[in-house]
Amino acid sequence: MSNIIFAENLTLWYEENEIIINGANFSINKGDFVFITGPSGSGKSTLLQSFYGKLQPNQGQLNIGGLDMSMIKKKKLQELRSHLGIVFQDYRLINEWTVEDNVVLPLWIAGYSKKVQTEQAQRLLHHVKLSGKEKKYPMELSGGEQQRVGVARALAKNPFLILADEPTGNLDEYSSNVIWDLLENACQQLDTTVVVVTHQIPTVFNIPFKHLSIDQKGTVYEVC
Amino acid sequence: MKFVKNHLSIIFPMVAILLGLEFFIVFDRTTKNYEESLRNSYAMLVVSKEEMSIDDFKSWDNHVFKVSEIEKSKIVNRVSSTFDKSLNKSNTLQDKMPNFYSIKLNSYLNKKELEEVKNNFLKSHKITRVETFDTLHQSNYGLFSFIKFAFSTFIVFMTIIGSFLIIKQMEVWNYMHSQRMKVMNIFGASLFLRSKVLINMALIDAIISAIFASIIFYFIQKSWLKDSNIRIIQDNLEKLFTFSDIFILMVAAMVIVMTAVILVVINVKEE
Questions:
Q1: Which residue of B has its CA nearest to A81?
Q2: A52, A95, A97: residue with CB nearest B186
Q3: Fewer Cβ neighbours under 10 Å: the N or C end of chain B?
Q4: Distance CA A187, CA A198 (A)
Q5: Cβ pair A94:B186 closer than 8 A
Q6: DSSP H helical segments within B102-242, as ranges?
Q7: What's the pLDDT tens digit per position in B55-72?
């Protein structure tokens, strides 16, 4: 199995005397579904942010899709990001754009034709059960619906890796289950690697998963 | 409504700045002409014991542009009625008269500078008298300078107000566009792509502003100024607004908005 994410002695900090992730060693393979858990302030989100290059490793090695993140150039980082799907707890939708425009953002960035964008938007919005809401604006949707738009956007370009930071943190149980189903399906049907940062692993989860846990000292353990 | 407000809040200060710029261009263009005509119509009178050449005058003062001798016979003819006819007939008067020169200068000088020119001439023992006519000269120049100063102050004031409004709009742009630009950055968009929406909007506003400013000036020229009785305006009516000014305003508007856009874009933190 090929490594999608590989970390060796990975250390992250914002200030040198406050280490967030301390010498983490783990690997994530293609098609894995991975939960990263830990108490508040343990560095779960920081670790996830390092996967999409928001911050670079201060020590050790971190490879994402074969790219060394400690030496990655801006251009390469842009290219890497265009092949990732990222889901945020606060959705991060573009409020002045319609639902359809938000969903096809990765395709627009990649320069796909309007026709391809429209077709993909229809397909994805049907998939996340938001057909008919193409022309609505994010603020006209509920939190659960906005997060489904966020997931649809993450899936738009068939990414090799989906990174989700507390995707159900702001949602009720029903909406949370819908999001888990969508992420499960992406992993199972498209063989996409999914890494989810969460406080709590859902009680009902239908596919095998890996579990990384971070303690208060920033040490990463592979639970299962 | 919000869309119109967003555009107007940049178009309005831009038009103010462009009008200021166009006023400056037009004022500079017309006053140059006016200054030239004032310079051309002004001359000093110099009286000398001996005949002089332009080089003599230039050697005393480098402001000298043109020297023409006033024919003695003309002076005698003009004043002949007040003199004894016998004197006139014998040409004695002409022979005894000094030489008169009308001197044009190469630039428009103030009272102090004219006094300096006068003193430079009087250093020569050949020159007996210099008349600068500085009272008339200064009244023209003083009025002209005052109008120029008042106009410049108005233009600077307009530009400052316009710049403040643009800075305010830059803050609005930052608030409106930073979230979208950050999201696009996360999904791998290049800097150009992230700024594209803002650039497009700003360029459209720049073009609209330049067209507005041009229309305003065109109408000022064709209706209001055409009927004015101000000589300087009437003399330069065609020069008040030329076709090339539209391009100058367009380029200026684009430079201003693009500077504003670049400042906004580099202030958006990358994630």
A1: B188
A2: A52
A3: N
A4: 17
A5: no
A6: 111-122, 134-186, 191-219, 231-235
A7: 888 888 888 888 888 887
